Amino acid sequence: MEKTLRGVGVSHGVAIGQVRHMGTAELEPPATQIPSEDAPREQARARAAVDAVAADLIARGNLAGGEAQAVLEAQALMAQDPELMADVSRRIAVGSSAERAVYDAFAAYRALLASAGEYLAGRVADLDDVRNRIVARLLGVPMPGVPDSDEPYVLLARDLAPADTALLDPSLVLGFVTEEGGPTSHSAILARAMGVPAVVALQGATELAEGLVVAVDGSSGEVLVDPSVERQEQLRVAAEERRAALAATSGPGQTSDGHRVPLLANVGGPVDLPAALENGAEGVGLFRTEFLFLDDSAKAPGEDKQVEAYRKVLEAFPEGRVVVRVLDAGADKPLDFLTPADEPNPALGVRGLRTLLDHPEVLRSQLRALARAAEGLPVHLEVMAPMVADRQDARAFADACREAGLHAKFGAMVEIPSAALRARSILQEVEFLSLGTNDLAQYTFAADRQVGALARLQDPWQPALLDLVAAAAEAARAAGKSCGVCGEAASDPLLACVLTGLGVTSLSMGAASIPYVRSALATYTLAQCRRAAEAARAADGAAEARAAAHQVLSGE
Question: Is 366 helix (H, G, I), strand (E, B) or coil?
Answer without folding.
Answer: helix
